[in-house]
Design brief:
By secondary structure, the chain is an alpha+beta fold. It is 44% helix and 21% strand. The N terminus is likely disordered.
C-alpha cells in the first residue's frame, strides 16, 4: 500500500510538472542532454544549420520550458563540434560559443544550431555535433528572473541527478537507440513539408534499409521498424500532418516513458 501510494504521488507530481507553466519570472528546469551515440550532422534549412537532440527533465519542482527557451551547456567537455571544409578537412569549434541551444518540444527534445552565415564565414561545408555522457543544460539567465537556479540546484543537476539519469535512462541501448534513430530520421525531412505517397514510400524504404547498418541492437532495430510502420500508416490516413511530425511524436513518447522511469528511480532511491 505504501509503494502504491508513493507511485501514485510520483505520477501526480509528474502530471503537475508537465502541465504547470510556472511563473513567468521563474527559471525553467535544468535538462539532461542525452548522449548522441556518435556524430550528428546539422541539417541546413533556411538561414540555420540545425539538429534535434533528445533530452529529459532533471527538476520536477521547476516548470517545463516553453518552445524556444534558450539554454547553455553546464560544461562542454563532453560536447564536440566539428566543422568540415570543402576539401574534407575538419576543424574543432568552440561548442559553447558557436552552438545555439533551445528547447524544441517541451523537455523531450532540444535544437542545436549554427547560423548558415557562420559556416560561410568560417569556410565550412557542414557541421557535426557529438554529445558524450553526463551533459546538463541550464536555462540561460534572463533579466527579471526572480528565481534563477541556485548553486545547490545546479550542483544537483550536474551531479547526482545527472549521474542517475545516465544509469536509468541512457544505459538502455534498446529504447534510447530507437529514439536516437527516429530523431535522426525526422531531421532528414524538411520542416513543415508534406511528402507525396511515392516520396514517403521511398524515404521509408531507404530508412528500413539503413537501419541494418545503423549500429542498433536487434531489439532497437525492431522497435524502430515498428515505429516506421506506424508512422507510414498513420500519416497515410491523415492522423499526422507530416511524416516528420509523426516521427517526432513517436520519439517524444519514448523519451516521456524514460523520463517517468527516471523520476520513479529518483523517488525510490535507485
Amino acid at each position: 500500500m505504501k509503494t502504491m501510494s508513493i507511485t501514485v504521488g510520483v505520477f501526480a507530481g509528474l502530471f503537475a510538472l508537465f502541465n504547470f507553466s510556472g511563473e513567468v519570472s521563474a527559471a525553467p528546469q535544468a535538462l539532461a542532454l542525452v548522449n548522441s551515440g556518435g556524430e550528428v550532422k546539422l541539417q541546413c534549412h533556411d538561414d540555420s544549420c540545425i539538429a534535434s537532440l533528445s533530452a529529459y527533465c532533471l527538476q520536477k519542482e521547476r516548470s517545463v520550458p516553453t518552445k524556444g527557451t534558450a539554454y547553455n551547456f553546464a560544461d562542454t567537455k563532453q560536447v564536440r563540434l566539428v566543422g568540415i571544409k570543402k576539401d574534407g578537412s575538419r576543424v574543432v569549434l568552440d561548442a559553447a560559443n558557436e552552438l545555439r541551444v533551445a528547447s524544441l518540444r517541451r523537455q523531450l527534445a532540444v535544437s542545436v544550431a549554427v547560423p548558415k552565415s557562420r559556416l560561410e564565414e568560417l569556410g565550412l561545408q557542414s557541421v557535426t555535433v557529438e554529445v558524450g555522457p553526463n551533459v546538463t543544460l541550464l536555462p540561460r539567465t534572463v533579466a527579471g528572473d526572480k528565481t534563477p537556479l541556485s548553486e545547490s540546484e545546479v550542483a544537483m543537476a550536474t551531479g547526482p541527478l545527472r549521474a542517475l539519469g545516465t544509469r536509468v535512462v541512457e544505459s538502455d541501448p534498446n529504447r534510447i537507440g530507437a529514439a536516437r534513430w527516429i530523431l535522426r530520421l525526422s531531421d532528414r525531412l524538411p520542416p513543415n513539408s508534406t511528402l507525396k505517397p511515392a516520396a514517403r514510400n521511398q524515404f521509408l524504404a531507404k530508412a528500413r534499409q539503413d537501419s541494418a547498418s545503423a549500429g542498433l541492437s536487434s531489439v532497437a532495430r525492431d522497435q524502430a521498424q515498428d515505429l516506421l510502420t506506424v508512422c507510414d500508416v498513420h500519416t497515410g490516413l491523415g492522423a499526422y500532418g507530416t511524416l516528420r511530425n509523426c516521427l517526432e511524436t513517436r520519439h517524444d513518447t519514448l523519451l516521456w516513458n524514460l523520463n517517468v522511469g527516471f523520476w520513479l528511480a529518483e523517488t525510490h532511491g535507485s
